[in-house]
Write a structure and sequence with these properties.
Length: 682
């Protein structure tokens, strides 16, 4: 039987089935071969495409999903950049980024014009591909606990510089072939790009912040983010430039509003990595013709030149950075390993050039370049993985690890009652949690005996909390506790299961005469010595722009001092926002020293006070989109003073509509606190 008559398959059901099979099995197979699965997707597309077994045709569906996937890659790459690490790197990132762009670009242009005999425009575009890089080996560094090393921060920050410059080159060259080129072409293109960038950077975040405050539904938020992505890409294309630049800048603009640990980020990653990006990679593979490598063309020569220049240019940039900043050889090799992998931006560049048709009908970048690019991606990804693994292992064994060991002793209980606050309390708990902690969170709903209505409501609340935790791959234990007294139920749950921290929402006043504290919190403070965080979040936590922390004098002598300092620093780092400390100079000096020793990524400011109750004084500084964290103290503790009794009245009077966390630190030390607690002053 002649099976060729059945191919290529045109039935949409079978097309989608085959694509899903590739998306499923390609990563499994190539992970066992210790090769990046991005290569597996491309090779699978080559195998089933018109130049392979001709099982599928490169039809309009692959073109549509290919465009979406390309935008998605650039958007996701900019979302995953840690902006705090970029700011910490400062000059080193700029130096590495500029040298990693200029050296491959300059050497590449010369080699492309002399060795490969390409004209100037094609040579510039091809050379820009050598300059870009993708941090595919970053998970290796994270696994060894080296993510805060100076050289790693340089590589992360340098990625933004090199990819931004590469995308600008693409925008200029792409724009040249979309309109008439005159004397004012380049200045006008630059002005349009600056204007659009300013619109995206200053207007998009404000729109997003307003939307996220108004709508909490995960699906609606995801659709909104996708609309912003394609709006950014669309207006960049309307200006005559490549949409991928708009997608990249949109990701940078929305970066701090979509924390890495948030459910929204997990939704974006899941959909992109499951459908759009694999579809794009398979489509790239389908247009590759390996026969060109061994035909009359110069594909092997092109691939050899591309690989040599890309590796040498990145090595030269790493060497310059090492010499300027006095780094070790292992640090240089780690920078080189992280910065030489070619993937997302390289594919973007080659497809821009491949899709530009010249007046004579030829392509700006031909099949030789397209096929050579795949070999370049394969070689650089393998070299990057091997070098990063080897360098990370040597640095780790030399004792240069900066990250602290994970303290798995801390257990957190979240008391959930109000269905409308579940999203925000869960988001808070997840962001306060140590990123690599293996200890599950626990959510409890305490209901009075024989109240079936409250039990049904509690079940729904806990189901919602479980869905949120599952979205971000955090293990959550849920339980309903029956009791005759709400505060006693929480206290017994904490003590019976040895929890070290309680997160609970503010009391909801049911009448004007109702106490601000309610009846539960005073009893919790009396009955528990664990840290208690009482939260009132008037807006989604990812829209917070600044954190203010006020604390009493001598709070550094409380057992849980370093615990809340580390937690609030993690929160500020996750939100990528500034943190302002208001307190006594002795306490702030210790905080500053502690954050410096732990290589804190946050932008911190220190405002000296007498260490008393400063709520009334700073009320004018706390705006609607700020978060106020009040560290208080229980009666009888070292840092307690009578003025702290007026905190609740002042919150009611001066902070209406503001987001507040009220923290009562641990009353007794756990091991991690005892090792860092300052000596008692006599």
């Amino acid at each position: 039987m002649d099976f060729s008559s059945f191919f290529p398959i045109t039935d949409t059901t079978w097309i989608f089935f085959l694509v899903l099979c590739i998306i499923l099995f390609a990563p499994i197979i190539f992970n066992k071969m210790r090769l990046p699965h991005i290569i597996g997707m491309i090779f699978a597309g080559l195998l089933i495409g018109p130049h392979g077994l001709n099982i599928l045709a490169h039809d309009s569906s692959f073109e549509l999903f290919g465009d979406v996937g390309l935008f998605y890659i650039m958007f996701l790459a900019s979302l995953e950049i840690n902006m705090q690490e970029m700011k910490m790197a400062q000059g080193g990132a700029i130096l590495l980024g500029l040298t990693a762009f200029i050296f491959p670009l300059a050497i590449g242009i010369a080699a492309n014009m002399t060795i490969l005999d390409y004209e100037l425009t094609a040579s510039i575009l091809l050379a820009s591909m050598y300059a870009s890089h993708t941090l595919i080996a970053y998970p290796i560094v994270a696994r060894y606990g080296l993510s805060r090393l100076r050289c790693v921060n340089f590589a992360v920050g340098g990625t933004i510089v090199t990819d931004t410059l590469t995308l600008f080159v693409l925008a200029v060259i792409g724009g040249m072939y979309k309109g008439d080129v005159g004397a004012w072409f380049l200045p006008s293109l630059l002005l349009k790009m600056i204007a659009i960038t300013l619109v995206i950077v200053y207007i998009f975040p404000r729109i997003a912040r307003f939307f996220f405050r108004k709508y909490n539904d995960g699906i609606i938020q995801y659709i909104f983010v996708m609309a912003m992505l394609f709006m950014g890409a669309g207006i960049m294309e309307l200006a005559g430039m490549e949409g991928i630049l708009g997608a990249f800048i949109t990701g940078l603009a929305l970066n701090r509003l979509i924390p890495h640990s948030s459910p929204l980020m997990k939704h974006i990653e899941f959909v992109g990595n499951a459908i759009f990006i694999p579809y794009f990679l398979i489509g790239v593979g389908m247009i590759i013709d390996l026969k060109v490598l061994f035909g009359e063309g110069n594909a092997l020569l092109v691939a050899g030149v591309m690989i040599a220049i890309a590796l040498f240019g990145k090595w030269l940039a790493s060497l310059v950075t090492q010499k300027v900043y006095g780094m070790s050889g292992d640090e240089r090799r780690l920078i080189f390993g992280l910065s030489n992998a070619q993937a997302a931006a390289t594919l973007a560049a080659v497809l821009v050039g491949y899709n530009i048709i010249l007046e004579d009908g030829s392509r700006l970048l031909n099949d030789d370049v397209l096929n050579g690019t795949i070999i370049l991606i394969l070689v650089t990804c393998v070299v990057s993985s091997i070098l990063t693994e080897h360098s990370s292992r040597k640095i780790a064994m030399s004792g240069e690890i900066i990250d602290k060991p994970i303290d798995t002793a801390e257990k957190t209980l979240i008391s959930l009652a109000n269905p409308e606050m579940v999203d925000r309390l869960m988001s808070l708990a997840i962001m306060l949690r140590k990123e690599k902690s293996t200890v599950p969170l626990t959510a409890v709903n305490v209901v009075l005996d024989e109240d079936e209505t409250q039990m049904t409501r509690g079940t729904r609340v806990l189901e919602k909390a479980a869905d949120i935790a599952a979205t971000v791959n955090v293990q959550l234990l849920t339980k309903i506790r029956l009791t005759t007294n709400l505060s006693h139920g929480i206290i017994h749950e904490m003590k019976e299961n040895n929890y070290h921290e309680l997160i609970v929402g503010f009391h909801e006043k049911s009448s004007p005469n109702d106490s601000f504290l309610g009846t539960v919190l005073p009893e919790l403070l009396t009955g528990l010595h664990s840290q208690i965080i009482m939260a009132r979040l008037t807006m989604p936590i990812n829209t917070i722009r600044c954190i203010h922390i006020t604390f009493p004098a001598k709070t550094e002598f409380e057992a849980g001092f370093f615990h809340w300092v580390d937690q609030t620093e993690r929160l500020a780092a996750g939100l990528d926002c500034r943190i302002k400390y208001h307190g006594h100079i002795d306490t702030m000096t210790l905080i500053q020293k502690h954050l410096k020793e732990n290589k804190s990524r946050t932008r911190a400011e220190y405002h000296e006070t007498d260490g008393g109750n400063d709520l009334k004084r700073i009320s004018e500084l706390v705006h609607e989109d700020h978060l106020l964290i009040v560290v208080s103290a229980r009666r009888g503790s070292i840092s307690f003073r009578p003025s702290l009794d007026h905190i609740f009245t002042q919150i009611q009077r001066n902070y209406t509509g503001r987001s507040i966390l009220l923290i009562y630190p641990n009353g007794y030390s756990i091991d991690s606190d005892m090792t860092e607690r300052p000596p008692m002053m006599m």
